[in-house]
Amino acid sequence: MSQSDVSAHSGARAEKDGTAHSLLDRTIERLTRHVAGHSSRRGLLGRVGAWVTFGALIPTLPVERASAAQAAKPKFKAPTPFAADAQTTDPTACNYWRYCAIDGFLCASCGGGVHSCPPGTSPSPTSWIGTCFNPGDGQSYLVAYRDCCGQDACSQPLCVGTEGDQPSYRPQANNDIIWCFGIGALIYNCSTSVIVGNAS
Length: 200
Description:
Mean pLDDT: 77
Radius of gyration: 41 Å
Oligomer: single chain
């Protein structure tokens, strides 16, 4: 093959490759222009932002919150009828979990606290004992009920819990006795409930 034939062959190949490159270039250019003509950067950014926001909101959907709340709420079997209806948030209600064996007016509703007497009254030196189930942690606790004495009875509604109540010949577990002994005044005002320890 002569040198002129080699040059002609190389030129034909270069022209053919140039045509192929320019066809590919033209196709990509057309495709890019078509996409650019039918979309905008703002629209693309808006769609990407919407998907990112949607992805971030998935954990807060109501179904997710409901399942998380169910998983967090402990399930304990109540050992007694009082425990089945007991609550742990309102100490001024008769179904507060500590009041399973109380019989009297609640000091928490009469100016005192769950375990403190109202001003002007004194706690009795003796008490009766109950065992109450706490639905919040699934544990049972020994609770000492102590009367607060020295003023007329509080005018709030009476609460009567009878769990473990024993006859008066077993006074340590009888809630009908007025326990205002040894403080000089047998005038009953209200009752407190103090956790003594874990009964489990």
